[in-house]
Amino acid sequence: MEKIVDINDSPFPQSPVEATQYDGSKVIQFSCHKGISCFNACCKNIDITLTPYDILRLKRRLDVTSGEFLREYTEPYEMEKEGIAGVKFKPIDNGTACRFMRDEGCSVYEDRPTACRYYPVALISMRRQDEYTDTNSYALIKEAHCKGHFEDRSLTIDEYRKEQGLDEYDTLARGWRQLVLKKKSSGPTVGKPSKRSLLLFFMACYDLDRFREFVISAPFNDTYDISDETRNKILNDETELMLFAFDFQRQVMFGEESVPMKADALEKHMARKRELAEAQTAADENGENIQSE
Ligand code: SF4
Ligand code: SF4
């Protein structure tokens, strides 16, 4: 089994993630609360990757579009060489602290990202190559500045995840996480992604308001055959739109037939897939890589 550390595993720089992996029944000793001597220390030096659901929650909270949120509060980064993009919090200007940190604590606490909720636990996702089935385990992050490990409170990681609302966050980000894990583990076997494919991934996963515009555009509707029921659902519920975006990306990135296509578009798509497969076979024989759709 190929081991891939999930991109949310280390929310803070140089986090000493302990090597031992645990399941959710592991009992940890930890408490974080106002009044602890290190309060806010972890938010002063951030390196926080955001999931699509994190972005959705925060853009709603701040009442801005996804584009405005991405521009103002985030910066993109490359999750793998020449591969798909991730999004991180942009720290304060000329500093390393989180823009949402206040003296009294986190100003977006109810909508804080997955990485902030997990800390000091690290999520480790693993999957078999070319499969979507993933399994999770956990590790502990112990940093000298974090005094929460010395507080007199014990609970299991499962209990801690529940307390932090992580079931909802993990469930709703799972489709995206599986895309990332599959792309990382399949690597060049699915070809180097084209610029169009990378832009589509970014839009679908992170810039949901722009993805909605795409879904109502003529090119999308000339190509894809989605029912009125699905259309109403995804255009009236941002969470459903996000989940649809993950399905759509499975088609774009891995050629899965996860979103129905119109008959003529499907014919063209199949012909293009055949061409790409032939080109990839030829490229493999020559030791080259080609761009996938
Ligand atoms: S979002 Fe809140 S908890 Fe997370 S780093 Fe920023 S201030 Fe800290
Ligand atoms: S106990 Fe740890 S997580 Fe809580 S404020 Fe202190 S450094 Fe941050």
Write a compact overview of the structure shown:
The protein is of the alpha+beta class. Helices cover 43% and strands 14% of the residues.
Number of helices: 11
Amino- and carboxy-terminal Cα gap? 28 Å
Helix content estimate: 40-55%
Mean model confidence by pLDDT? 87
Order of helices and strands: EEHHEEEEHEEEHHEHHHHHHE
What sort of overall outline do the alpha carbons produce when their principal axes are compared? Answer: globular
Strand sequence of the main sheet, in spatial order? 2-4-3
> Radius of gyration in whole Å, from Cα?
21 Å
**What profile does the largest beta sheet have?**
3 strands, antiparallel
Say which molecules are bound, naming each kind only once: iron/sulfur cluster
Overall SS class: alpha+beta
Strand content: 5-15%
Q: List low-pLDDT spans.
A: 1-13
Number of DSSP E strands:
11
What number of structural domains do the residues give? 2
Summarize the topology.
Blueprint: E1 27-29, E2 49-50, H1 52-62, H2 66-73, E3 74-78, E4 85-89, E5 101-102, E6 105-106, H3 114-118, E7 121-127, E8 134-140, E9 154-156, H4 157-163, H5 166-186, E10 192-193, H6 195-206, H7 208-215, H8 218-223, H9 228-236, H10 238-254, H11 263-285, E11 291-292
Parallel strand pairs: 10-11
Antiparallel strand pairs: 1-9, 2-4, 3-4, 5-6, 7-8
Helix pairs in contact: 1-2, 5-10, 6-10, 9-10
The protein binds iron/sulfur cluster (2 copies).
